[in-house]
Write a structure and sequence with these properties.
Order of helices and strands: HHHHHHHHHHHHHHHHH
Largest sheet: none
Strand content: under 5%
Helix content: 55-70%
Structural class: mainly alpha
Number of helices: 17
Number of strands: 0
Length: 479
């Protein structure tokens, strides 16, 4: 083998300290995730998206050989999704003007962030494959992790300032406070679920990973568990039932999975931290249950919701009142409406499997056509609303791309041990979002942008491995 070919092979196999491009991409992502749901930040968001996409495009062009691998299939599935959305607009549209408006907003932002997500994933892939840890790789990780935690930190800071302002009658600027609608600085509960739950999932995964591979990582374990507690506190303080239940599901799943792992090692410190976590979560969960009687009436409300044809008060958003359950109490609005709306949405999907065309409000528009006096908007399940919007083919492409990307990374996690925090965090990040979409109405606005961004990022982090017979220049160093 001549010198030139040796250099090429060395270049494709060597993944060393991150360069300024990698660090810049991570910083831009952290800033974007921090402000994505914040009001009055659209100019800054677009500036970050464009900057990140320009850098991401550079990374993609430098490493374009990666896109010819079969591991790039999830990325091409997202491209196919965009083609399907365009095809639906042109040939299957039921409301062309509204669908075109969504196409020029939601899907335009998806396209804007596409190079950013792919470039970031490739850059992270290069960091995660560095065989020797360095201070620079640690910096990238902590900047990335802080970005995921930023929405939760912003909420808690605003909560503290709001309490202080009320107690001491301080006149603080609106951007520093947690305000209710109709304030233009109001942030809805669904936003906190979508952008805070991934931080809890990633932190929990890293805590469990530390117990598996690094029994000396006590300080990091405490930090990660603190994030789990603080995110749970966000959901408790904001009284978000979705956030509380999904937090418990993720914690329970991770713990069960770790207990079944042969490589998991318990230490006294680890067991002690878990007991503290269990006590704190138990206290928050108990108080949450006491404050939300709807958990106690769930089964009784379900029986009423099953009579949706006979009792159709669910169509009117409370304008005509609500029925009573078998306990003699008025049904929980949350329980009753969500269950009846889900049933109605499933019937609509059966009638129109290719979708109505609107990512947001397809449920409400289709309901208006069937029941002119109804006042519905969404089914409050992102998966149902998204299926009503882009059809079974569109949602199928999203799920297929997501699961293929997760499967690819999961294979690498089980084989890499110490060098798996980027991959494991990506799996838990996307997994938490796919989970919350079952009962959270995030089929709209920036949530779709973020969903596609995360899928592309996860897919790109698993594009290739230097030990899998990569072609020359399959990955070029960005130093």
């Amino acid at each position: 083998m001549n010198t030139a070919s040796k250099n090429i092979k060395s270049e494709s196999m060597s993944l060393i300290a991150p360069s300024g491009v990698r660090i810049a991409l991570v910083i831009l992502f952290s800033l974007l995730w921090a402000i994505w749901i914040q009001p009055h930040t659209i100019f800054l968001r677009h500036a970050v998206l464009i900057s990140g996409s320009l850098l991401g495009l550079y990374v993609i062009l430098q490493n374009r050989a990666l896109l010819w691998r079969k591991t790039a299939i999830p990325i091409y599935l997202i491209f196919l999704l965009l083609a399907w959305v365009g095809f639906h607009l042109l040939f299957l549209s039921n409301n062309f003007s509204l669908q075109l408006e969504e196409f020029s907003t939601i899907w335009k932002r998806v396209l804007m962030g596409l190079p950013f997500a792919i470039g970031l994933g490739i850059a992270i892939h290069s960091i995660s494959n560095t065989k020797l840890a360095s201070n620079k790789t640690d910096v990238c990780w902590w900047v990335f992790f802080c970005g995921l935690c930023a929405p939760s930190a912003i909420y808690l800071l605003r909560y503290i300032l709001t309490v202080l302002a009320q107690r001491y009658q301080l006149n603080l600027p609106e951007p520093l406070l947690n305000l209710a609608a109709p304030s233009t600085w109001y942030v809805p509960k669904i936003a906190w679920v979508f952008f805070c739950l991934p931080a809890l999932a990633v932190a929990w995964a890293q805590f469990l990973q530390a117990q598996r591979v690094d029994i000396k990582a006590g300080g990091h374990s405490i930090l990660y568990l603190s994030v789990v507690v603080l995110v749970s506190a966000v959901f408790y303080l904001e009284n978000i039932k979705n956030g509380m239940i999904y937090s418990v599901i993720l914690i329970g799943f991770g713990l069960a999975n770790s207990l079944l792992s042969k490589r998991f090692r318990w230490t006294r410190k680890g067991i002690g931290l878990l007991l503290i976590l269990a006590i704190v979560i138990g206290i928050l969960g108990s108080r949450h249950l006491q404050a939300n009687r709807s958990w106690n009436t769930f089964m009784a409300d379900t029986k009423v919701a099953e009579q949706m044809e006979k009792i159709d008060l669910w169509k009117f958003a409370g304008q005509k009142g609500y029925p009573k359950n078998a306990l003699g109490d008025t049904v929980s609005i949350t329980n009753y409406e969500r269950m009846t709306w889900a049933q109605a949405a499933l019937k609509m999907i059966k009638e129109q499997p290719l979708g109505y065309g609107l990512v947001w409000k397809s449920f409400g528009v289709m309901a208006k056509e069937r029941w002119p006096d109804s006042v519905l908007t969404q089914s409050h399940s992102a998966w149902l609303d998204l299926t009503l919007g882009i059809g079974i083919p569109g949602v199928g492409l999203i799920l297929l791309a997501s699961f293929m990307a997760m499967y690819r990374l999961n294979k690498r996690v089980t084989n890499e041990g110490l060098q798996s925090r980027w991959q494991s965090s990506a799996i838990w990040w996307i997994g938490s979002i796919l989970l919350l979409m079952f009962t959270t109405e995030v089929s709209q606005k920036t949530y779709i942008d973020a969903l596609i961004f995360v899928i592309l990022y996860v897919a790109s982090t698993g594009l290739g491995d230097p030990n899998e017979g990569s072609k020359p220049h399959a990955f070029k160093n960005l130093n």
